[in-house]
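Task: sequence design from structure.
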């Protein structure tokens, strides 16, 4: 909320939420490899497991619901 403004309730509601696909993952940042000058191969991924959504999936859903063109 610190960096966002003009909030309004989402008009898509439960239909949108039901289509979201939560996933667990390990972070494997490109920057980890760029700093070392090596090709990304999974060797520098974090051990910590995280929960979230794949941005590409959310964007596809937003397009499906007409939120973005």
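Answer:
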């Amino acid at each position: 909320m610190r960096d966002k403004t003009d909030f309004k309730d989402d008009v898509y509601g439960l239909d949108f939420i039901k289509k979201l696909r939560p996933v667990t993952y390990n972070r494997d940042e490109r920057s980890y490899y760029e700093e070392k000058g090596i090709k990304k191969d999974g060797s520098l991924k974090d051990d910590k497991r995280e929960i979230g959504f794949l941005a590409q999936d959310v964007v596809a859903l937003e397009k499906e619901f007409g939120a973005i063109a």
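The helical segments are 13-19, 30-36, 55-64.
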